[in-house]
């Protein structure tokens, strides 16, 4: 209150505003002083002067401070972080704790044994100072943390030595078999391919049918959201990795400011790469609230989104954490829905996945197909997987974590280009649950074919990486997630790229057989195998079209239904992406195919404005 | 004086006795045997058997004659004819004409000593009926116009030595020499059917001579039954569902009568009686002169035996077959092991059908040769060697002319087709000598693989006359290896690509080259080469376009989806390469010559050494290894270019991955 008094006396805020701030602080459960900057009632210098006058904490020259490891070791880093405090050694050699709200920190850390000085630091500078003092340490942890602690779970090594040797033995045996028993070898491989294809298609069909038989996995009603008391809400961290996308910065600030969540309790970390000056400049120019922090990730390999997220993870103050892409348009109540779900679901729930869909779904054929696919994926596939207790590969964004458990999992794998799918598996391995809720984040669907291929090749490459990583230790994986979930993993994570890689081969054989008079393939297909192949061809394609048609019903996008018939064409594009992904898996496995955003001509509808 | 008186008294006493023993002549008509209506024989080529029950086990054929009272259709051309066989022995040929009502007496004396005694006389009428010509050339004649009736006044006239037999007993004793059947009653039939069963047996002797009906027994059927045949009758007035069914019960055959009441049983019998047989001709019939006397004496190695009836003509209309049968006396072939040569000059008209027709010559229903008809009009020589193993004591030579017009073809020359054999045709019979290459047991029935009654011969094109010729060669081969089964090849369009084929034979015409591939993984032309594999990988052929070959495949053809029916054995034949068609003709002809049987199994071989036995599916081959080598450009060649690079690629990739992995580490 002292600060409010000071500001009122200075004429920075009126007495009416003071009363409003007091009321709002009670409603949101935050100190009134934390609202001053967040609501832009005073600029940084005025605020700092008033704070110093009110509480007696002054600022110091931060350019000369160094990391005070000894003092930091007195409590976990999370506690420093949560309070936006950092122990340093000042230029005069004294121990200083710099904090955004030193009054609070001093009250809570007052029992320190050694005499420590508390000093004030602008909120805008806190993240930058932490980055300067601990950036190298954070970067090393972001890149090597998982590898160091659980190397067997890291995709840093794409192929292990046993995997390469096994591949060579298999290839050699196959060549020998082909040499001596060519027909039986071809038939045997054909049987393997067709049987696996059949099982994968059947499994995905079952998933969809199970998913369709339920309403979206977990519904959070409006009344449950309304019942949440803002004063009890925890700090929520939102990470937004951005790279080379200066134009979307204003969009990020606008969209996230409109979320239905107390603004002072939002801890927004915009993850920017150090070499991306353009975007960094755009962020500085946009005038974001002080709780929107620009986290500058030092340049280092691999340049992947999970590495950036890992770098931002130690800076996350929230009890919960979520990730949005730059162009995302989450439903405004999504954070509260996730929170309500966390509170009512079992304690083992580690992550809640919101559905993704597209706001530019009717822009062109590609966006329509993409929308059909995502509708099917998030509305049927994931609920189906949840129902069947199959590990859920998380979506790239809108996955809400308990921050502490995310740290327990060592964050994301920076070498895996579908780090989200990998994280879902690792979470399941530790006995945590991944749950889906009925909230949607609208994204921008890829409208450009080249962009789509790049994005999809990364996804499929990531699935291959994830499969290779977790297939290294099948026994352990079965022990951790169970046999059923293991099969689900094989069929879903392994089966998806397999189908896309094999599909064009089967089509080529089929078309050659259909369009020419060749009998080359006749002997490859005994009658029973021919029946299975035709079943795969007919029923496989039918099911693919059918499940896509199903996708339109839940969201009542009936106009999309005819486009489901184009699914075979869409599969061809998948296959192109799959082969591109396979090539990259071999030659540059960690390369992150950047998806360009902001290409759409469709203006997204703004979410409902916050009250 | 006294002795003369005693002689006269003795003669006087014996004369009445001699008079009592005088031969008795009786005429029994079909009408007396219960047939009230005429028997109609209808169609282009029909074979109709009639059984006349006899009151005694044997009759004296010397004093017996057949009487046929016939009524001919007004649409019959005077080239129509009926061959009459008695107990499968040729007796005579009757010419029929439009609207004629001939009555014909045929003495059975020529058959004396050749008939197997029995309780019935089997008459076989092989009719070749032709329609009278008119100007409507493209009109397809209805077979309904081609008929003649055998009137119920027809019958048998015979003389008995001493007493008149009881003709009323014949209803009880008609017996054939075929399978035994028991007439049993329907278990549901709640009334005695002894009378009906007896009547049915009599009827069966007429209409189904291959069935034997013994005495009536109660239904003893216990085990599972397999229905073999069903004859269902519906009386026009009663709509009775009565029927008879032939069923198999284990090794036994039963004929089961189905009738639900006595009324139905009577109705059945009434219906059956209406189907009873027999009839006959009018005044203008004639029996052709039996045979032309031999022009030489049998005894030397080359002896002219007889000439063949000259100058016969037949008509063929559209797609079809016509046949002409010649019978030869058994005396000509009674000198043991003989072979024969048929030499004649032939000519056919019109000339424009060249390449569209095929002549086939059968000896005792075995195809000996088939050849394309050349450009007509010119006289050509036909010289055919008849293998000794085909000759029996009594022999028939049958000419069959097949004509397959081009689709949509309908033109004047096709309407009448004549094939003329000039009168200097000869059949030479000679003693079998060194030319006989085949083993003595050559023509044993192939009871296993080829014990099927029907085969489909799959060809590339029905309009290709060479395919016809090949098909006929294949039929010939089938008949050689499966003498007992009735082969009725069906020509269908090929659907051979997707079928399992257990055997492939390849022949190359110029030199005897036979290759076979067992197993289930064959071939067809693929791109510009022919690839043939066997499942055991021991044989892979890749044949270049320069190597024209004929290919014969044996296999099975499954019914198409939605199509009923059993798996059908097939023979697929096709020529490949620039001269594929003639190569196929040569291959099939060669194969036809090389078919024989060994311990009952069909074998393909060189006459001595089996190359392929259909019993054990042994893959054995190669008459000429040197020649075959040219064609062996298969997987053994290509695997160097496929497998090795694949392995090198996989190994290089593995090494590269290991190296890259090390770098990242």
Topology:
The complex is a heterodimer of chains A (611) and B (665).
Chain A: H1 2-10, H2 15-28, H3 33-38, H4 44-55, E1 66-67, H5 69-72, H6 77-82, E2 85-89, E3 95-99, H7 102-108, E4 117-120, H8 123-149, H9 161-180, H10 182-212, H11 222-226, E5 236-242, H12 249-257, E6 266-273, H13 277-286, E7 292-297, H14 305-312, E8 320-323, E9 329-330, H15 334-344, E10 349-358, H16 365-387, E11 399-402, H17 403-408, H18 419-429, E12 433-443, H19 449-470, H20 474-481, H21 483-515, H22 527-554, H23 567-587
Chain B: H1 2-20, E1 24-29, E2 39-42, E3 45-53, E4 65-72, E5 80-86, E6 89-96, E7 103-107, E8 120-128, E9 147-150, E10 155-160, E11 179-184, H2 194-207, E12 211-213, E13 226-232, E14 243-249, E15 252-258, H3 262-274, E16 303-307, E17 320-328, E18 338-349, E19 357-363, E20 366-372, E21 380-386, E22 395-403, H4 412-415, E23 418-421, E24 426-431, E25 456-459, H5 465-481, E26 490-492, E27 503-508, E28 513-518, E29 524-526, E30 529-533, E31 540-543, E32 549-557, E33 568-576, H6 580-593, E34 595-598, E35 601-605, E36 610-613, H7 625-629, H8 635-664
Helix pairs in contact in B: 2-3, 5-6
